[in-house]
């Protein structure tokens, strides 16, 4: 799925098609694979080793799409095209499937005059409702809602990661202080 999305992105943006290289390690009876995808002059590596080549290539393509989508719509041509392809909707669906949550549910609201409607979309994921920017059509409103959800979830994940590392640092500092007072 991720390889297809990355290839579609390359075709829409007139980039060269992604190319994959693979590293194989381990014994013949239990090989492990790691892939690197070259996309528009950038290299993206699968974050972990996989049990087969296909999984490693998909993992590298996923890393590329996530990295490109995190740059936001105004930072590059690739990011703008990611908006157009609706990759955020696909990423939300993948997240829901991974965590066993119901699939995202989209709702759109129409406002404005008949000849110039304005659509606002929301997406409900894991009990949380995310609202996107206003759009000229229903499809774009859903994409904006998915983008808003993706960016919010990414920000929450970064906050959780930083707060858990702060907690670990505080725990370690407390342990050091306790051990010093005992000596």
UniProtKB/TrEMBL annotation:
<dbReference type="InterPro" id="IPR014720">
    <property type="entry name" value="dsRBD_dom"/>
</dbReference>
<feature type="domain" description="DRBM">
    <location>
        <begin position="87"/>
        <end position="155"/>
    </location>
</feature>
<dbReference type="InterPro" id="IPR044450">
    <property type="entry name" value="AtDRB-like_DSRM_1"/>
</dbReference>
<protein>
    <recommendedName>
        <fullName>DRBM domain-containing protein</fullName>
    </recommendedName>
</protein>
<keyword id="KW-0677">Repeat</keyword>
<feature type="domain" description="DRBM">
    <location>
        <begin position="1"/>
        <end position="70"/>
    </location>
</feature>
<dbReference type="InterPro" id="IPR044451">
    <property type="entry name" value="AtDRB-like_DSRM_2"/>
</dbReference>
<feature type="region of interest" description="Disordered">
    <location>
        <begin position="160"/>
        <end position="183"/>
    </location>
</feature>
<keyword id="KW-0694">RNA-binding</keyword>
<dbReference type="Pfam" id="PF00035">
    <property type="entry name" value="dsrm"/>
</dbReference>
């Amino acid at each position: 799925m991720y390889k297809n999305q990355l290839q579609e992105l390359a075709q829409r943006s007139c980039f060269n098609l992604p190319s994959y290289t693979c590293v194989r390690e381990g014994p013949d009876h239990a090989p492990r694979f790691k892939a690197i995808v070259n996309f528009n002059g950038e290299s993206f590596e699968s974050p972990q080793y996989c049990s087969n080549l296909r999984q490693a290539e998909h993992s590298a393509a996923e890393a590329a799409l996530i990295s490109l989508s995190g740059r936001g719509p105004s930072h590059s041509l690739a990011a703008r095209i990611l908006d157009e392809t609706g990759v955020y909707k696909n990423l939300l669906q993948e997240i829901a499937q991974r965590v066993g949550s119901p699939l995202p549910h989209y709702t759109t609201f129409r406002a404005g005059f008949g000849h110039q409607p304005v659509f606002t979309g929301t997406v409900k994921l894991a009990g949380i409702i995310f609202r996107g920017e206003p759009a000229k059509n229903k499809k774009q409103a859903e994409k904006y809602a998915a983008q808003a959800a993706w960016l919010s979830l990414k920000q929450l994940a970064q906050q959780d990661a930083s707060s858990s590392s702060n907690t670990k640092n505080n725990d370690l500092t407390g342990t050091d202080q306790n051990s010093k007072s005992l000596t």
